Each structure stands twice: as C-alpha cells, then as structure tokens.
Amino acid sequence: MARLYGSEVTRAEIARHVGDMAQIARTKPYRLAEGFEAGTLAVDVSTGTGFQFTVVPDRALDVSSASLGGRSLAWRSAQTDRHPAYYEPAGLGWLRSFPGGLLATCGLLWHGAPTTDEGERLGLHGRVSNTPATNVHWDAGWDGDDYVLSVSGRIREAVVFGANVELRRRVWTRMGESRLFIDDTVENLGFEAAPHMLLYHVNVGFPAVAPDARIVAPSTEARPRDADAAEGGERWDRLDAPTAGYREKCYFHTMRAGRDGAVTAAVINPALDGGVGFGVYVRYRPEQLPFFTQWKMMGEGAYVVGLEPCNALVMGRDVERREGRLQHLEPGERRSYRVEIGAAAGAEALASLEAAAGGGR
C-alpha cells in the first residue's frame, strides 16, 4: 500500500480523486533537442513525494538528473547527457562523455584505469555507459495497491570474433517512495568465457555534498589507492569546501554487512535548510558486489563524492587478472544484481539512514 502525503492510501481511494494517475506519479518519455544531447532518448519518472529522476535509455538506461523536493541528489558534469555517438573510447576519452548523473554504469567487460590487457587496449571504464538500449519499455501501473513505475531494456556489448554479453536492466520505483531500484542481469550469449567487470558509479553532489556533510558507511578499512589518497586518508569520511587544484582521492573499502545482509553507504548533510538535513544513499548486497570504491573529488566544479559498489577494483583489467580477482562469465552464465539509491530529508529520516549505515566507523 502506498504512503502518500502522510497517509496510507489504496488504489480505490486514489481512483476517486484523480482522472489520470499522471497527476500524482508518471513516466514521461521525450527526446533532447540540441547540442551534444540532440536526439537522446530520456524518460522522467516522478513518484508523488517530490522525488524525481531521469532514465536515459540511449546511455544504458543510466540515471541522469535526480532530486527530492527540489534538492539535487546528483553531481552533473559540463558534458550533459551527451549522445553516445560522440563517445571517444581510447585512453581517458570516456571523460568527454561522462555526464556524472546519479548513476553511470562502468563495464561490462572491463572498468577502471586505461590499460592494455592480453594485447587489447582498454580505455577508461568500458563501453556500456555509452551504449544505447534496445527493447526499451516504460510503464506505470497498479500492482495491487502499489503503483509501480519502471523503465527497462537490453544493452548488448559484442564484437565479431570476441565477447557477446548482454545486460538486461529494469529501473523502477513506487508511488509514494523516495528511492529507486536498479535490477540488472548480465548474460554471456557467446560461446567462450568472457571477462566480467561491473561498477555502479553513483555520483552524489551539492547540496548533500558540502563542508558540513560527512560520509557514513559500515567500513572496517579504507585503503588509499595511491599517494594522493593516502595524504589525509584519515579524513576519508569528511568533506571540504570546493578547493582549487584539488587532486582526486579514491579509497577501497571493506564493508560490514548489516543483519539483513546488505550494505548501506550515504552522504549526509545534517546542516542543510537550517538543520532539517538531507542525505543520499546507495544500498547493495556484498555477495553480488564484493568491492566498494569511494571517489572523493573536492575540486571547483568537480565537487562530488562517488559511492561505487563493484565486482572488481579500478586499477585496470590487467591488474585484476594478475592479482587473481578478475571474474568471468561462462557461456550461457547469468549474474544478477540489485542496487537501491534513495534520498532522505529531516532529522528522523537522517537518523534512520545513519543507523542503517551502521553509524559510520
């Protein structure tokens, strides 16, 4: 049953008040019109709580803009929701079409640093985020007394004489909620084992990211990626004002799952709106995604915290192979993943969120 405007409501009760459910909650498809975005298919989803987000089928059904009550959840880059036709795969070219957004998917065959693995040159973070989906479907309808909103499709990553892997994705939510779910299944459609690396690049931005904010996570270890991250590494959970010349820091976390077996990590700003507070979280299962990378970038304009559940680290596929972490999908094998992303506002909601995240370190 949906909880809407402070009360629990049934389908029959809602039907008496509205002629079209789009008055409260809807999925709205459209195409962007100009510049590098021109022609890009997008779908806006709203749940009736002030929670809204945009799914971009032309970019692997990634989640672009998102907000709760007018407060943005996500950091967005100057690249906008760039059409995948402009993708530059070599080296760091991925950054020229990285919109930020609430979710940018990295994978499916590799992610992380540009490298050469077994003679194959691999650019930053893989191809999937710049791959358009097929069999795209958006929907909004009743499931009992729940009004469910969803966008789904398939993303194929294949090459002649090589891998043939497909991602089936459904992004969905319910009326009356301030969270969304990403349900993914990756299948090897080919006839040889394929390397499989997957990272959910969740990009939290202002106003959750602010000098008064902190990162809350059940982390038992935060291992710095490099010397830049080691400098000030004891403050991995503390944020600063936008800083000129800031050098990004990445930390590899060991997370402690909660009693239900899930991990919740969040950015919480308790001072926003005179102490009302605001937070953004990601929730996942470590048996599906055993690693977690935190990206801390306090630069001017590039002011963002990445909360990134993943099945491999970001040092490069050659490093994953050499260190024995590289996963493979056998022919016909499927792997399923669920990631939940949401927002909270108000002292009570933030206290519940912090408790779910284990109260930090």
Q: Which word captures the global form?
A: globular
Helix content: under 10%
For the secondary structure, the number of strands is: 24
What is the alpha-carbon Rg in Å? 20 Å
| Overall pLDDT score | 96
Please tell me about this protein's structure:
This protein has 361 residues and is mainly beta. The chain is 8% helix and 45% strand. It is built from 5 helices and 24 strands. It has helices spanning 11-15, 227-230, 272-275, 317-322, 347-356; strands at 2-4, 7-9, 26-31, 41-46, 51-56, 62-68, 71-72, 103-108, 115-117, 120-122, 134-143, 146-158, 164-174, 179-188, 194-204, 214-216, 219-224, 249-255, 263-269, 278-284, 291-298, 303-310, 327-329, 334-345. An 8-stranded antiparallel beta sheet has the order 11-12-13-14-24-20-19-16. Strands 8, 15, 17, 18, 21, 22 and 23 form a 7-stranded antiparallel beta sheet that branches. The protein has a 5-stranded antiparallel beta sheet with strand order 3-4-5-6-7, with no helix packed on it. Strand 21 and strand 22 form a beta hairpin. The radius of gyration is 20 Å and the shape is globular. The relative contact order is 0.15.
Summarize the structure.
This protein is mainly β and 361 residues long. The chain has five helices and 24 strands. The mean pLDDT is 96.
